[in-house]
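Practice problem: predict the structure.
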Amino acid sequence: MTTGSCLCGGVTFEISGDLAPIQICHCIQCRKAQGSAFVTNIPVRTDQLRFTAGEDLIKTYASSPGKVRAFCRNCGSPLFSRRDSVPGTVRIRAGTLDGDLPVRPAFHIYWDFRANWLDIEDDLPHYANNATG
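Answer:
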């Protein structure tokens, strides 16, 4: 069982089962939504995700057609996103998870949009867009 929460602790959740590898996204929307050089996502099936507190604090924003981003309305912590094209799955923000994780990043997507002010020198595969092979 993996647990997580927002910054203020108002929203808490549990994820059952094994975690998928972390995906690092450099697209402009993710950079703007996170206020950072990239976002770290873990795809989670909705039947593996259970909110243990504060589900009523979750606010959503339709950032583009078919995509919703969710965050805590108290502290603003980004929690997850979901796409209509991938029903039954959310992309949990890895930074919201508690403790050490048993997974590591697997690849970078939207590499061509990465921030020019941060050097990334890992050996992970990187893809110009969302096509991961």
